[in-house]
Amino acid sequence: MAADSLKKVLFRWLPITFIGILLIISLSFLHVAMNDPEYSDRYTNALIYLNGFILLLLGIAILVNLVRIIYQWHMRQAGSRFTLRLMVGFLVLTLLPVIVVSIFSMNFIGKNISKQLDGQIESALDDAVELSRLSLSARSRGHLQQLFLLGDRLAGKNKLEIAAIMDSWRARSGAYEAILLSNDFSYVINSNDSLGSLVSMFAGNDLFKDLSGNRTLSRIETSAGEGIFSRVAIRVVYGIDNESGVLTALLPFSAREQVLSQRVATVRDDYKEIGFGRGVLRQAFRVALAVIIVLSVLFALWAAFIFSRRLTQPVRDLVEGTLAVASGDLEKKLPVSDRDDFSLLARSFNTMTKRLSNVQDEREQARMQLQQEHDYLDVVLGHLSSGVVTLDENMIIRRVNASADRILNGPMQEQAGKDFEEVCEQVAVLKPFLQALRPWLENPDQDWQSEVDLSAAGHRKILMCRGANLPENDMKQQGYVLVFEDVSDVLQAEHDAAWGEVARRLAHEIKNPLTPIQLSAERLSRKLGKVVDGESETFLNRMTGTIIQQVDTLKQMVNAFSDYAKAPALMVRPVSLNQLITEVTALYQENEQQVELLLALDNDLPLLQLDQHRVRQLLVNLIKNALEAIETDATGMN
């Protein structure tokens, strides 16, 4: 559960956090690039790729959310229209201020840059550079005067003296170098303190070229590693032989002069560079502002999609929950969050659905219990040997068990929903049944019991019928129940039993005198056979033999007659004794003696191997004899 919640939070906030970080990085790079031209070229490609990637992500996110909300609106999903309206409101409130600020920012950028790049500023900077150059030129001319003084001292001196004089002058003046050249560009004397670094700075060809038409030279030279210098040169006569040559020196300016002149030149160059790229700079600022505006608008648009969905999520949940409850799904639960004001509504909704679900469960349990009772009743009725027919208050057949079809020899179960009297009128065999039931049908408020004699196709049936009311709540009559039992076999068994008893007793009474007659005849034959002879003996034997033979024949006839009283062959099969007792006692619950029959049966009794008809006859005789033995005024006995 915690893992699912963590995944949900990450899925919700990770895209926003990721794109937000990318926007911060992009704006930081853009800020650095706009404020420091040195980094502008370095970060240009990175900014283009990064902003393009952000635009692609925002475009995909906006497109996905737009397609989703249009699909939801098209499918009429819950809360889609409210979400769309809220999103439009967010966009209007976001885009209007951004557009207004953008318009004023664009105009401000153009006018402000134009003012900063005004021509008067450029002219003033040029004047400052020119003033700096004039100041340095004046200093350089002073250096030239110092060099003239040095040149006047070189005539009539040998090289060693000249070298000493030049070293002494260089040390006093602070010059970097002092060089004496011959007319053929060869070094005569070179006095410096850093020969390796300054030789490359001296351009002899240029120097002689500049001195070709003049006697003196004064100019300002720059070195990338050393700063600004003053280069001065004059034509001199030197040596013992008064040879002609060129004397040149490289003198530095003061640190303050160098810093000021370089700063003025740098500012003037930067300003001119800006002036040359005025349109490009203005366009760059506008592009940067446009990028920021586009990113802000797209992010605001995406945020409007997201936060409109987040804000309307509780409403959508409530609508979906309401539709689910309306469709019968009472297990629907709304997510409850304590971070908004919808939590009370969500809790109330969940409480309502829980109560409705409990009520539905109770109703379902009651329905299942009722269904179980109906199923139990169907099983009981289906296994009853008695026919059962239930009628409503309008005598319409509602329920018929299988035994009713068997007893009445008709498809009574197919007649459910029809009028009972019409069904009996249409079937010829049931007309006597209807005639016997008519008194009860005309006055069904009282219980009724009667025997009905049905005869069809030469077969006679005697039915024991009972009728009773089915009470409804508030003491209203819901319907009636009719129970009938085929007692033809029972009556026939009683008839057979009576005749069997008569035959047994008659056979017993007839056989009693036959035995002594037979014994007497046999005794006479034995006794008289010794006395008489001849024809008399023959006659005696014939007569006594006839008597004995006829007595045997008569005994066989008596035995055959007594066999009528013997019980038929047993028909044993598995029988539920409890069910058999219940069926038999149901026939005698309504009796003239008003005796209540109570049963105490063992529900765990297994099926027994019995002759159902003999046991049924036994129970019928037992109950009938017991009822007949009770006095008529002994009402209320059990």
From TrEMBL:
Domain of life: Bacteria
Pfam families: HAMP, HisKA
Any GO MF annotation of the entry: phosphorelay response regulator activity
Catalysed conversion reaction: ATP + protein L-histidine = ADP + protein N-phospho-L-histidine
CDD domains in alphabetical order: HAMP, HisKA
BP GO terms, sorted: osmosensory signaling via phosphorelay pathway
Transmembrane segments annotated in the record for this chain: 12-34, 46-71, 83-106, 287-307
Name by which UniProt lists this protein: histidine kinase
